[in-house]
Design brief:
This protein is α/β, with parallel strands linked by helices and 278 residues long. It is 36% helix and 19% strand. The chain is built from ten helices and 14 strands. Strand 10 and strand 11 form a beta hairpin. Helix 1 packs parallel to helix 10. The model has no long low-confidence stretch (mean pLDDT 93).
Length: 278
Amino acid sequence: MGVRLFVSDLDGTMLPDGNVVSAENIAAVHRAVEAGVTVTIATGRMFEAALPVAKALGVDVPIISYNGALIKSPSGHIYEEHLIDPLLARDILTFCKERGWYIQSYSGGVLRYAEACEESRFYENSQKLTGMAVGWDGLYAHVAGNCKLLLVTEGREVTIKRAETLLSAFGTQVDVTRSADCLIEIVPKGISKASALQSLAAKLGIPIEETMAIGDAYNDLPMLRAAGKSVAMGNAFPEIKEVTDYETLTCEENGIAAAIYHYVLGMGADAPVPMTRG
C-alpha cells in the first residue's frame, strides 16, 4: 500500500535552523507531489512561522501548526482550531510568573512575552521572527485566542522538571510535551500532532494506513505512532528511533529528501540521496 499523505516536522527534520529549506528537500517534495502524494507540515511553530516554509516548498495544502492545535492552509482557510480556555491560560501564566519561569503566548498569531531576555532572543533567533515584550499585564490582556503556550528553559534537566510540575498542576486540563531539550509546549487537552494528522487524513479522504510521518523530537512521538508508517531522522532522540519503522539521514544531510526518495517513491539505489538504512 503506497503513501498518499506525507507529513513532516520542521525543526530538526526539514530545517536545521531558521526558515531556509534546502534545494534538495524542495526537489524531493516536488517529486512526491508530482507522483500524487500530498506533502504537508506538522510543527510546534506558530502558523506564521511555518508559512514561509510552506511557500518555499510551493505547496498550498493544510499546515498543522501549534503542535496540532491549528490546521490552516497557506491561503488562510482554517480547517480546525483548538484554543486554551482563557481562564486556564491566565492560571498557567500566574503559575509560571510566581516561579520566575519564562513563558510566551501566541494570541492572534502574535508572539508575546513579558520582557526581552535570553530566552526570548533564543526563540526569536531560532524561528527567525520577532515577538513583543508586553509585560505581565500585556500577557494577561491576551489570554484569549491561544492555541498554545510555550516555556523556554536552560536545558534538558530543567525542562523535564518543569514539564512534570506543569503536568502535576494542570495535566487534567492541558497536554504538556517537550519539543526540544529547552522547550515545553502546552496545548489543549487531547491535542497533538497525532490528533491533527488523523483529522487531516480524514478530511482528505486518505486512510491512516496510507500516511507517513517523519520527525526527530518528543512532540513528534504521538504523530509517529499514529501514522501508517514512520521515519526517524538520523539526529532524532533515541526514544524516537525506538518506535519508528525506518531511519533516514540527519537533518543537515537532507534526511527528509532521502526518506521521500527511498520510502515514499521507492527509488532505492536510484535515489539521489543515500540512506543510512532501509
